[in-house]
Amino acid sequence: GASPGGTGGGIKTTTFNLLIMGLRALVGSDRRIVILKRNVSESLVNRAFFIFTVSLFFVLLSYFLLLATQGAIHNVMGLLFEELSAFGTVGLSVGSSHIANVSLSADFNIVGKLVIMLSMVFGKIGPFSIAIALMEYQGNRNIQYPQLKMMIG
Q1: Shortest CA distance to 55 belongs to which of 88, 92, 91, 97?
Q2: CB 81 within 8 A of CB 95
Q3: With a threshold of 0.85, does the pTM exceed it?
Q4: Domains of the chain by residue range
Q5: How many CB atoms lie within 10 A of CB 11?
Q6: Of the candidates 131, 117, 109, which has an alpha carbon nearest to the alpha carbon of residue 55?
Q7: C-beta separation of 61 from 95 below 8 A
Q8: CB-CB contact of 86 with 123 (8 Å)
Q9: C-alpha–C-alpha distance, residues 19 and 148, integer Å
Q10: What angle is formed at CA 51 by the lines to CA 49 and CA 52, rounded to 5 degrees?
């Protein structure tokens, strides 16, 4: 991943750091997480775990799709590297085994190329942003309207 404000995708370095600190707090005796003499809220740590879990699920799903559609003709580790590079929008590749000076993705069929493209978009936008965009707007649930009284009959 990249740092916040950067152009890279994937899990941000701050999210990864918060994830590690959250795991240390979970295992250790002190449950507090302190960064730069500031307490980190539990909701922020939960969000980091959510981002990591959704990202891991997406990368594994994409990798298995690549294995199913490209695995017979490509190296398993090369496919994993290509997927992780796409998710992080890194721009690295192991290279094509057939054509000189091109990405391994150049050898993929249309399904493999779509998987790589979706991984790049998902990695750049981020799982939390996508989850917020896909959630149905609930409105303000704290508003209570007065009881309707009408004559019927």
Answers
A1: 88
A2: no
A3: no
A4: 13-131
A5: 22
A6: 131
A7: no
A8: yes
A9: 49
A10: 65
63 exposure class (CB count in 10 Å sphere: 0-12, 13-18, 19+): buried
| Both tokens assigned to 142 | 């704290």
pLDDT tens digits along 31-58: 888 888 889 888 889 889 989 999 999 9
Could you say which DSSP state residue 73 is in? T
pLDDT bucket at 122, cuts 50 / 70 / 90: very high
Strands (E), the chain: 34-35, 38-39
Q: For residue 11, which of 104, 93, 125, 140 has the smallest C-alpha distance?
A: 125
Using CA atoms, how far apart are residues 54 and 47, in angstroms rounded to an integer? 11
Q: If DSSP codes are grouped into helix, strand and coil, which group holds residue 27?
A: helix
d(CA 116, CA 93): 12
> Mean pLDDT, to the nearest integer, of 108-129?
91
Task: Tell how many helices (H) and how many strands (E) occur in the chain.
Answer: 5, 2
Confidence of residue 144 (pLDDT cuts 50, 70, 90): confident
Residue pair 119/59 in contact by the 8 Å Cβ criterion: yes
